[in-house]
Design goal:
Blueprint (H helix, E strand, L loop, with lengths): L11 E5 L5 E5 H13 L3 H7 L1 H18 L1 H4 L10 H20 L6 H19 L12 H12 L6 H9 L2 H26 L7 H14 L3 H15 L15 H15 L5 H27 L4 H32 L5 H41 L1
Antiparallel strand pairs: 1-2
Helix pairs in contact: 1-3, 1-5, 3-5, 5-6, 5-12, 8-13, 9-11, 9-12, 9-15, 10-14, 11-14, 12-15, 13-14, 13-15
Length: 379
Amino acid sequence: MEVNTVSPIQARKLGRSHGGQAVVVDYNEVEQCLTHWLETAGVDREIEAKPEQIATFEAGINEAISRAFAPILAKSSRRTSGSHLAHQLLQRLLYHFNRHSCFQSQTLPSYLAAYRDRIEVVWQQWEFSHVNQSLSQTTDIESTLRDRISYDLTPLPSENVRLLREQITAAGYRQLLTITSFEIAAKHGILAEAIRGEHNYSELNASLTRLLQSTFGNHFFSKSASLYAAMLEDVGLSSNLEAYLDSIPWEVLSLINQACLQVRQLEQPLHYIGGLLYSEASYPVRFDDYRAAAQRLNLSDITMNGWNQGIEISAIHRTAVLDQVIVPLVNHDLAEAWNVVLGYDQQRLMSHRAHAAIARSVRAAERAARMSSRTTAKR
């Protein structure tokens, strides 16, 4: 069985070059330029020989930024969602950048890093414009976080949760599993990068590295990878997660790209660790819904045990991250400690957006499966 995939970016868009001339920008072509450069040895010579590729790439970035983040560029207080296709292009570009530098540990050429940084700056301004930072500014960090966790462990029922627990089909579950496996594997790769301790800009950061190492241990990441590979293979899917990139909503990619950015800038680690705490707090709730979906579909013990282990491990990590990592860090830097709460709140907001996108993707996969079945029946 194969996961349903769709073309990642399905439209040509009209943009403007630096000279003000109208140009047609093909978002697929923009992405292909970047992936080609990242795979090419001697990319400097390649770009010098084909300046039209740079023109296409720059026009695409300019066009997408203007459509995704218009209020930020206009210095407006309006909050808008922006163009879906533009967000999709930008998050896919950032993922390719991060896959190259974070997951494959290769250095980006400076001019490509400059494009990445340009996207990230305006994207982060847009993300923060949706967060009410005043709600995060507290001096009682530990109690505030415990209250938030208690609330997030018992969320109110929603239509998306009912979809997973009561209505999901086999096609929808496969889509859900591929997206979740992709997200978790990427986040764990980023966490492993943080634990390696190559970004010890300060005593606070070095403390974070030591605390994370003691919390997650040496074998957690390989065990997690094996767990998800077994669940994928149990429903007839490949464990080669990169094959599913075209199925991953941009809202999920933004979670991965956010974590990559934060690890790259770990001279201020409190924001990152707050987001990590939210993830560990939310996984048991998510995984319980996914386990209910698997049980409803009568999936095997391999899948049921996978979700059971995910729930148990995340509950342990949630407690450890708060008690063994955050509390010592907060005591170390009280003046900036509220950034832990800000990181938690921003991760919660971005995650809710991503979970809604996952539900839409599940429904789309189910519709595609029904249409395919009808087409087959007519033959």
